[in-house]
Known about the structure:
Blueprint: H1 2-30, E1 35-36, E2 41-42, E3 45-51, H2 61-74, E4 79-84, H3 85-94, H4 98-105, E5 111-117, E6 120-123, E7 137-147, E8 156-165, H5 168-183, H6 186-192, E9 196-197, E10 208-209, H7 211-230, E11 234-235, E12 241-243, H8 244-250, H9 252-255, E13 261-265, E14 268-272, H10 277-285, E15 296-305, E16 321-331, H11 336-353, E17 359-363, H12 373-389, E18 395-397, E19 407-413, E20 419-428, H13 430-434, E21 438-440, E22 446-448, E23 450-459, H14 460-471, E24 484-488, H15 494-506, E25 511-514, H16 520-529, E26 534-538, H17 540-545, E27 548-552, E28 557-561, H18 563-575
Parallel strand pairs: 11-15, 17-18, 24-25, 24-26
Antiparallel strand pairs: 1-3, 2-3, 3-8, 4-5, 5-6, 7-8, 9-10, 12-14, 13-14, 15-16, 16-23, 17-19, 19-20, 20-23, 21-22, 26-27, 27-28
Helix pairs in contact: 1-2, 3-4, 6-14, 11-12
The protein binds one RNA strand of 75 nucleotides through strand 7, strand 8, helix 6, strand 20 and strand 23.
Amino acid sequence: xxxxxxxxxxxxxxxxxxxxxxxxxxxxxxxxxxxxxxxxxxxxxxxxxxxxxxxxxxxxxxxxxxxxxxxxxxxxxxxxxxxxxxxxxxxxxxxxxxxxxxxxxxxxxxxxxxxxxxxxxxxxxxxxxxxxxxxxxxxxxxxxxxxxxxxxxxxxxxxxxxxxxxxxxxxxxxxxxxxxxxxxxxxxxxxxxxxxxxxxxxxxxxxxxxxxxxxxxxxxxxxxxxxxxxxxxxxxxxxxxxxxxxxxxxxxxxxxxxxxxxxxxxxxxxxxxxxxxxxxxxxxxxxxxxxxxxxxxxxxxxxxxxxxxxxxxxxxxxxxxxxxxxxxxxxxxxxxxxxxxxxxxxxxxxxxxxxxxxxxxxxxxxxxxxxxxxxxxxxxxxxxxxxxxxxxxxxxxxxxxxxxxxxxxxxxxxxxxxxxxxxxxxxxxxxxxxxxxxxxxxxxxxxxxxxxxxxxxxxxxxxxxxxxxxxxxxxxxxxxxxxxxxxxxxxxxxxxxxxxxxxxxxxxxxxxxxxxxxxxxxxxxxxxxxxxxxxxxxxxxxxxxxxxxxxxxxxxxxxxxxxxxxxxxxxxxxxxxxxxx
RNA sequence: GCCGACGUAGCUCAAUGGCAGAGCAGCUGAUUCGUAAUCAGCAGGUUGUAGGUUCAAAUCCUAUCGUCGGCUCCA
Length: 581
């Protein structure tokens, strides 16, 4: 089974890569001055980059598609040619392809392969299909800017994204899938379910929570607080603003300034906190600490503000004001492995509690770093050991660690398959140094404390976004802002409905009533669209007997239920965190 | 920040230089009804904002704010 799948994927890669060459050929026919960048196949399709100085616009995509169909009809052979690097450089110099020449400069091998189809030549490892005629079901999807070789200082090329399949059915299904994903988009559901909104008057990247979204947050936050207390964390709190001297001391003013909101008051410069760590350092620093006190774990749902570049803002996933479930763990070097391991377990516990999938990355020492290489080696090994002890699969991102220490990142997927970083566990050699954080060891000597900086959901905002998309807005009862909606058949049952509502609210259930003079079918439809876990249908039958009919959001009915029994059912579903009542 | 696209009623979308419109939502009335839309009527707008071109601008131009898809950066 597995090998067949691999083959198919490989086949798709070849198809898509070949389609990207056809696209490049079409673009060159229409815009002979376009310079070729690179054109690989990617997860769900392919792209090709062109240096064309903005002459290629989205209105040209249809034209490019048309030319591609012509090339496919011409059924040109993909011809492979093995040449020396010098020969290849000469070919592309003649064809005025500076990016290809640059690429060749970076290749170590003596021989490279060229692929030709008709008048088009590309530097390419291959493999390709036999001929352009083998491609038929493709679609150009979007246009985007992309820096040459992904470096900000380089020229901006124009990138065309597209996809390609062997059958029309698969292409249609893929396009359909994208449409379906849009319905689960948290930005759309956030509005439809009245969870949150963003207002340009308030400011880009700043979230306002509406009653249902605020309730959802409250549920998640109180769950988190409890779980932290169970694990020996202590709650701390710090103000939103602080004097800039604190940030001078922490180093943020130098390294992080462009992301910080600063303001002055009198002669004093102030900072709106972009992080919680410096304040937590001050808590540690406030008295002499003994090795007997360690590990110390300070937890704060800390709301921070960062001046993010306008182009990166994205719904709840990338914002300027957000709340981290932030904690700082101070320990002795000998406790590091154990503490990291506990945090890894905690993060996984949280992911599991919300039924979310994830992937892990270990990021190691970057080119520029502070602290000694031995410390780095030990800390990186501690992270590796913690992951190993839990039997977790992880990728290693060489040199991707922060300048102040190695880290473990946990990424979560959104509905379109994009990855977003959630939980992160970072060892920090920098701040304990800058704040001179020490503890008194058994021998009476003062020693440098080791610090772990960690979040287990990441930020409440991003996490909520992922959660909304994961459940498609249909929250499990324990999280659902409204758990029950009482629907009356006619206004005659309103008083019974009101007494039921009072009873449930008293028992701590989140209940709403729909007493409007509307048809039952209409009320059911609305409650279904609100994705409320269950409805109570109250007509004459129920009112007379003092019982309720439960309609779950999947359409299933439970008849003649005692109100108290129903309340217990909901409580049980909440306690067990079941997805449905 | 950069590249491209977009911004019309609460929402989804029409109106291609010549009278700003529809459906849903909202409001009012009728209907008292059993599991995804009862019927009728009414109201809703400085076309994101500011400037410009024109006899005339939602439409063309400039700036600005915001949104979307990417790039870079990041939780």
